[in-house]
Amino acid sequence: MLKYALPLQKLIGELEKLPGIGPKSAQRLAFFLLSRSDDEVGELGLAVLALKAEIGLCSRCHNYTTGDLCPICEDPGRDISVICVVEQASDLMALERSGEYEGVYHVLGGALSPVADIKPSDLYIAELLERIREMRLREVIIATSPTVEGDATGEYLRQLIAQLPEPPQVTRIALGLPVGGDLDYADQVTLARSLRGRTKMEG
């Protein structure tokens, strides 16, 4: 087995932990960084450190932000009568790129998964229900990924929302999204059609 200098081996090992990065890609990236100037590599390092030091979660929707509220929650032009529920902040950004949605969001922080031991208490579900109680909502859009976990999470949310006093309409995006796919990888046109073609969730 080919042995690299220890710092290079360590960097390759860390890069391999990134999603979608295999051993060959990690090696390519490591050698690319090694070929760049100290300033360029230093800027990258500072940007990575700042990511954790300066970015937190929006106190309202749990999107990533540098302040108390994210730019979407602070935007007075958004329709606050509609909440779109997503698993991750990356899903939120994918829907924003579609240019179709003008409401606000709620990021769950994942999806229910018995296999991964992710329970309702591990997600921002209680916070979602509290927002629904406090706001005059006309619709909650469930935009979890069309996976087994995403579908189970969506149905669980539908049942909880249905038990609230004067529950809003609950819809689910579906059209054009492949089963088992992630929202983050869907193209803008597909996501726009999925939002327009959402269907009412019924028990």
Key attributes of the depicted protein:
single chain; alpha/beta; Dna Topoisomerase Vi A Subunit, Chain: A, domain 2; 2 domains
What is the averaged pLDDT score?
89
What's the CATH class label of the largest domain?
Alpha Beta
The DSSP helix count reads 8
Distance between the termini: 57 Å
Broad shape? elongated
Order of helices and strands: HHHEEHEHEHEHEHE
Total of domains: 2
Give structural notes:
By secondary structure, the chain is an alpha/beta fold. The protein folds into two domains: about 5-55, RecR Domain 1 (Helicase, Ruva Protein, domain 3); about 70-200, Dna Topoisomerase Vi A Subunit, Chain: A, domain 2, CATH 3.40.1360.10. It is about 45% helix and about 15% strand. The strands form two sheets. Strands 4-3-5-6-7 form a five-stranded mixed beta sheet. The chain has a two-stranded antiparallel ribbon with strand order 1-2. β3 (about 80-85), α5 and β4 form a beta-alpha-beta unit. It is elongated, with a radius of gyration of 20 Å. About 25% of the residues are buried. The model has no long low-confidence stretch (mean pLDDT about 90).
